[in-house]
Every structure is written in C-alpha cells, then in structure tokens.
Amino acid sequence: MTGRRGGAARTGAAAAALTVALLAAGCGDGSTSTGGTPGSSPGTGSGAASGGAPGAGSGGLTGAGTHEINDSTAHVRYSVPGEWTQSKNLLTYFTSGASTAPAESDPNASAKPKPTASGSEDDQAMFLVGVLDAKMFASQERDTKAAAHALAKQYAEFFYPDDAKDQVKDDHAVKVDGHDGWYTDLECVPDDAKDTPFRFRVTVVTVTGGTPVYTLGVAKSGAGKRLDELDRIGRTLRIG
Predict the structure, then answer these.
(1) Could you tell me if residue 73 is inside a domain?
(2) Counting Cβ atoms within 10 Å, is residue 222 exposed (0-12), middle (13-18) or buried (19+)?
(3) Residues 6+ apart with CB under 8 A from 209
(4) CB 222 within 8 A of CB 119
(5) 12 or 174, which is more confident?
(6) CA 117 to CA 132: how far, in whole Å?
(7) Is residue 128 part of a domain?
(8) Considering its fold, how many domains does the chain have in total?
(9) What is the CATH number of the domain that holds 28?
(10) Helix (H, G, I), strand (E, B) or coil at 38
C-alpha cells in the first residue's frame, strides 16, 4: 500500500465528487467531450480483467442484451451490457465511454439508479476510453507499465482528492487484440471510514504506427457484479 495522499481542506467533498463523476458518465449519444483537464492532466485507464488479460479471450460480452460502441477517435470498438448507457459530455481526455447511470436524455430511464444492498449509489460503474497523446502527462512515461501506473494514480487523486491510501491489487503485462499492453488495478482506500473504497482499473495498449490507447474502469470495491462487467467489457476491446 502506498503512502498517504490527499487534501484535508477538501474533506467532505471528495466522496460526493466521485459519486457525481460516476453519475455524470452516463448520458445518451455522443462520444466526444467538452471540459477541462485536472491540474495534473491525468491520463486514462482500462477495464481489464483482474488476474486476466483484457483483450481477446473467453468471458467477454456477446449476443443479445449487449450493444457495441464504435470509437472513431481512438479507433477501437467494444461491447457493453444492455443496461449500460453510452456516455456524452466527457472530459477532453476521454474519447468514448459508458456507465450504469441512466441517461438523462432517455425518457424511459429511471431518475435514480436501482438501490443495492449497500445503498442506491453503490452499484454505479463506468468504463472510459482515450488516447495517450501529448496532452496527457502520462504520455511522457518510458513504457506502458509506467504510463498505466501514472494514470491510475492520477485518476485516483483526481476523483478522490482527500486523504487516502492507494493499494495495487493486480499489475501485469497483457495482450489486447494482439497488441502489447499493461494492466493495473488500483484500490483507493479513503482514510475516512465513512467513504467506500474504489477500484481504478487501467490498461494502456500500444498501437503499431499510432498513438497508444487506454481504458479506465471505475467501480466501488464491493460492487462485485460491476467489477466483473468491467473485466468482460475490457475483453471485448478491438483495435483498428
């Protein structure tokens, strides 16, 4: 587990900020974004599988009840469960994404997520994609491993800026649709016991002759179903 980080002056706002980020990730149709970058210009991550490669393989999402997202900016495509909603109004360093939050633009969407045993917001999750171009500080890292580590830490600090400890739960090389990459799974454990730990799953993938791609999966540590879905989404990622 890494050392303490955070900003005590912001205590009390961090959990709300992370919840808002999760809820805001789900909305209707577009995949490109408006908005600014956080001060340290966090990179991105991936919904790779815990203990397994996020690329091709068994256990992905196929058949009825799923839909495919085609990201023409990052030149990737991937499938998400039918109940997930494609995201719009993303921050500028994401090119596409999906979440479990209902789309505000969908008149049939529920106003609030379905409650779970541990509360109405504990079931939220998001999967985001981006390119590791020059606007990302992590693009300066020496390899995909270092870039994945930098992105996971930067996003954990961005979404949860209060005092917390970050623990690496999984960390290994992967193959994604035949391309080399690195996957890291970081758990953010708040010092404030009232705030639930979160997982930040990042994959950075090299692209022959192109800019590396990354994915970021975020869910609460106890949301077993959503963490499994993040793994399965990551395994559907196809490049080119």
Answers:
(1) yes
(2) middle
(3) none
(4) no
(5) 174
(6) 37
(7) yes
(8) 1
(9) 3.40.1000.10
(10) coil
CA atoms within 13 A on the CB side of 53: 15
Name the residue range of residue 138's domain. 8-239
Which residues in 31-47 are b (16+ Cβ under 10 Å) and which e?
bebeeeeeeeebbbbbb
Q: What are phi and psi of 53, to 5 degrees?
A: -70, 145
- Cα angle value 213/38/43 (rounded, 5°): 15
| Residue 2 in domain | no
Is the model more confident about 49 or about 130?
A: 130
3-state SS, 79-140, equals: EEECCCEECCCCCCCCCEEEECCCCCCCCCCCCCCCCECCECCCCCEEEEEEECCCCCHHHH
- Whether 156 contacts 217, CB under 8 Å: no
**pTM for the predicted model, two decimal places:** 0.76
Q: What are phi and psi of 107, to 5 degrees?
A: -65, -15
Tokens of 59: 């256990």
* Per-residue model confidence as pLDDT tens digits over 137-163: 898 898 999 999 999 999 999 888 889
Amino acid at 43: G
Residue 103 included in any domain: yes
Sign of CA dihedral 27, 23, 1, 93: positive
Q: For residue 112, count CB atoms less than 10 angstroms from its CB and return exposed for 0-12, middle for 13-18, buried for 19 or more.
A: exposed
The Cα diameter of the chain in Å comes to 48
